[in-house]
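quick one: manganese (II) ion bound model?
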Amino acid sequence: MSAAMPDAQRIWDHCAALGRLSELEGGLTRVFLSREQQAANDLVLGWMRAAGMSARLDAIGNVVGRYEGERPGLPCLMMGSHLDTVRDAGKYDGMLGVVAAIECVRALHARGRRLPFALEVVGFADEEGTRFNATLLGSRAVAGTFKAEVLDNVDQDGVSMRAALRAFGLDPEKIGAAARRREDVLAYAELHIEQGPVLEAEGLAVGVVTAINGATRCAVEIDGIAGHAGTVPMSLRQDALAAAAECVLAIERRCGAEPELVGTVGKLECLPGAVNVVPGKVRFTIDIRAPRDPLRLAAVDDVLAAMKAIAARRNVRLGVTKTHEGGVAACAPWLMDQIGAAIAAEGVPVRRLPSGAGHDGMAIIDLTDIGMLFVRCEKGISHNPAEAITLADVATAARVWLRFIENFDPSRKP
Ligand code: HGY
Ligand code: MN
Ligand code: MN
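yep, here:
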């Protein structure tokens, strides 16, 4: 039996290959149910099979690979991350976790090693929520918490999720079939880039995640009255964009008032959008996050109250729809301990840190306990094409991950 180890260069090359599957020329954008996602799925299915796994597409378009344990049908340690991206993304957010987990299975397979549990690797079809204003769609389907009402959400071209699923060859009525049974999944473990600066500042290649911060997202629509830019006096305007601008600043002020809180308006659309027309309608998004739920919920309440007051004073109509509500997702101590032990065994000091970014574990926590390993990210830059990691850190992270998998002990689950 050889002692095959994960090949960091292959992980690197596979991230690069996935990074080329993009609707954006010269950059990376790959959204749920797109042609590029189909191509990414095909690549990943092939890599899974080459690593000794059986591999399939599930009912929502997640790629699922399985490596049986000492006998077929054992419950699994589920690993993975997402294969979709934000617009103009980096090429490690999500993909690194899928590719590294497959590489660890490949090493075990090369050794002829079977474990007392099965391994599964999932490439989630949608975590970012880039296309349909609804997030964590792949992992919610696996957790059995997918809400059918989002099937009617439409993308920027007016295509509904229901229609896009059909065009992808999937049946929207059968998404329930992607849900897994609790008794079949021992735990969920995800390797992901940190997307923040902490590990780099402390000179550490990897760290153990303690919890994923909670998030609330809203879609806002402000209706004013479009008018002639030359004739409507300033005092008589119902300018939707000026009202939205005040709202954006109110969000910044409220979320900037407490160090643990963050608030972002990341998308804003102004209609009709002409140089000589007073804006009649504005749509924008809000994303508010914090490591404690009461802190986030209080900020959301305050922001909504402030926006109502702005709309009333400016005589515009305000519509707010909550598009996502995710509480803080705590990583399980027994998994943190086992990931920490694998890090220590590789000679790296064990640093525990929370995640400011959202992850598939936020949905999978409804199915099973979650644990995460973070990998150092250059300058903490992510959701940006400049996102970067080093080959040496990939090698360290993959060694830690394989050690964690080999020593995974589900009997420690309380
Ligand atoms: O938005 C997030 O935190 C994640 O990257 N989807
Ligand atoms: Mn992301
Ligand atoms: Mn991610």
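The chain has a mean pLDDT of 97.
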